[in-house]
Sequence to fold (123 residues):
Amino acid sequence: MSENISTSFGSLLKQLRLEAGIGLRELAKMIGKSPSYLSEIESGHAHAPSAEMILDIAHALGGHKNELLAAASKMDPQLTDYVAHQPEAADFLRKAQEYGFDKEDWQKLDQLAEIALGKKENK
Fold:
């Protein structure tokens, strides 16, 4: 893992923690880790934690799960499990990568999924 990921994750974590008005010791206690460990993460001197711990942190901060996972280049374990058990989903993601999907493409797909689900529920 590059230091840039560690640094950017740590900076984001600190920003979100301060915005939430939660002290370092308080957050550490909430997630069962030491304040010194969190300080090392926030300063970029320790690697971003596991996806599971990131979810615990996000819960303690009241949200920001996707933002924190992205900053750490990690994936939600539930999604990892889903893709692992749905070969079609993995194939689709490979195609999306091959075609270079960007934010607009994903937004359009999200809209199409909503439409498809709406039609499916009305049947």
